[in-house]
Amino acid sequence: MAFWDWQRWEHEIDWMALNGINLVLASVIGQERVWQNVLRRMGQTEDEIRTFITGPAFTPFLQMGNLEGWGGPVSQTLIDRRAELQVRILSRVRALGIQPVLQGFHGIVPTTLKNHYPQARIIDIGKWQGYQRPDLLVPSDPLFAHMAGIWYEEQRQLLGDARFFAGDPFHEGVAANIDLKQAGASIHSAMRKARPGAVWVLQAWQANPRDEMLAGTVKEDTLILDLYGEGEPQFKRRNGYNGHPWIWCIVNGFGGRVGLYGQWQKTAINPIEARSWGRMSGIGAVMEGITVDYPSYQLLYDMGWESKSPKLPHWTAA
After folding, report:
1. Nearest Cα to 252, choosing from 241, 237, 238, 266?
2. Which residues, 6+ apart, have CB-to-CB distance to 49 below 8 Å?
3. pLDDT band at 296, cuts 50/70/90?
4. Which value, to the nearest 10 degrees, does the dihedral of the CA atoms of residues 42, 43, 47, 53 take?
5. By Cβ atoms counted within 10 A, which residue in 27, 112, 282, 285 is the most buried?
6. Which residues, at least 6 apart from 71, have a Cβ–Cβ distance to it below 8 Å?
7. Which DSSP category does 110 fall into?
8. Got the DSSP string for 291-303?
9. What percent of the chain has pLDDT over 70?
């Protein structure tokens, strides 16, 4: 998907609308321009910015704070073309009544930013799978609110208004000596200041989002994606997320593997059972690969219209 053109995206968006999808992650394409504009205003040099921005296939890993600069530096032409493509994608998405989830600011910054702001609390959060992570601007630091304001301003100017914003500052790891409740409050506060009523979309993956961080958020304006519903869902052991709205999801096709890996029995039963747990608010797919295992996705999207579990022999025959 990193290299799709508009024709392929238009087909995908129409397919999503036909399957009843009303919320779509749109936090990757075009973010190079957002980062570029924000970091220029933060005093970063052009070389520093270029060494921070990743190549198109790695942007999700940058947004999750897993790595920086990998697959780069990218050309200005690529940055401009991807920004133009995202504007077109979002126009189509909104025209079809689908709400986009844009990228929220949660403290991920270049490792070079601390050279410009030596007094700010910017910490090294180590490595991920051998890759150097970007640094973390601690959300309680005054610089965080300043940079967050710039982020949402620049993103709105380029990509328009949105209510939903994604972001997990502690993906597959937690920075030491961070007050998680305060971090959650600071991140959500900056988001809601920039866009009143903003909803923070969080991934339930491994130990995240931690209860301590959720305690600092406004429950009504959060949405938790229980990613691995067909494998290791968290909603039961976490008591339905204690009143935070959440969505039952599948994360089918790890790494885009080709084959019939979907766990149909769970997809056909678990979303129905999950409705009694807290504020379960829908179903979703957070797949790591598409264009493989079509039946699993068809079953998932059919479940959006079902009030009881279908009998799989009948479903497959149909």
Report:
1. 266
2. 35, 36, 39, 40, 110
3. confident
4. 0
5. 27
6. 54, 55, 56, 57, 58
7. -
8. SS-HHHHHHHHHG
9. 98
> Three-state DSSP class for 220?
helix
Supply the DSSP symbol for 221: G
Annotate 123-146 with three-state secondary structure: ECCCEECCEECCEEECCCCHHHHH
Segment 161-164 long-range contacts (CB within 8 Å, at least 24 positions apart): 161/195, 162/99, 162/100, 162/101, 162/102, 162/195, 163/99, 163/195, 163/197, 163/198, 163/199, 164/23, 164/99, 164/100, 164/101, 164/102, 164/198, 164/199, 164/201, 164/223
260 pLDDT more than 80: no
Q: Which fold has domain 1-223?
A: TIM Barrel (3.20.20)
According to DSSP, the β-strands at 135-137 and 108-109 are antiparallel
Structure tokens at 109: 């910054």
Return the number of other C-beta atoms located less than 10 Å from residue 77's C-beta. 8
Strands 164-166 and 122-123: unpaired
Beta strands in 39-161 (DSSP E): 99-103, 108-109, 122-123, 127-128, 131-132, 135-137
* Residue ranges of the chain assigned to CATH 3.20.20.80: 1-223
Query: What is the rounded CA–CA span in Å between residue 57 and residue 82?
Result: 12
Contacts of 314 (CB under 8 A, 6+ apart): none
The whole-number pLDDT of residue 92 equals 98
Amino acid (one-letter) located at 174? V
